[in-house]
Design brief:
Elements: H1 2-34, H2 43-63, H3 72-78, H4 93-101
């Protein structure tokens, strides 16, 4: 229920913001055509842009999926102890020797 409501709020806020931008363009074009210096925008345009922002924020909050746990503790909760072993794999040189040099066994030293 909240996801379609959030998407509707986002759509309405985007339309309101586009209308506020168009109204601003028309207002400034009219002032330029009349040769008047550009002053501040009318309060109706400012209120419309702020209203679009205030609709957009809860709309995006409702439309997005729940946040996932990205902490180290949350990642370890998904793994087994074998997957999350803290010991370094490259610390054991004997395990890497066969992968690097094949099945060659070093001659015993005297």
């Amino acid at each position: 229920m909240s996801r379609p409501l959030g998407r509707a709020l986002v759509a309405i806020s985007c339309l309101a913001l586009v209308h506020a931008a168009y109204s601003t363009y028309e207002y400034l074009s009219t002032l330029k055509a009349l040769g008047r210096p550009a002053g501040s925008l009318p309060t109706s345009i400012i209120v419309e842009a702020l209203g679009a922002l205030l609709l957009f924020l809860p709309g995006t909050t409702l439309a997005t999926s729940p946040l996932q746990d990205v902490t180290y503790r949350g990642e370890l909760a998904k793994r087994t102890i074998g997957e999350s072993d803290a010991r370094m794999g490259f610390a054991r040189l004997s395990a890497r020797g066969r992968a690097l040099f094949g099945d060659v066994v070093a001659p015993p030293s005297k």
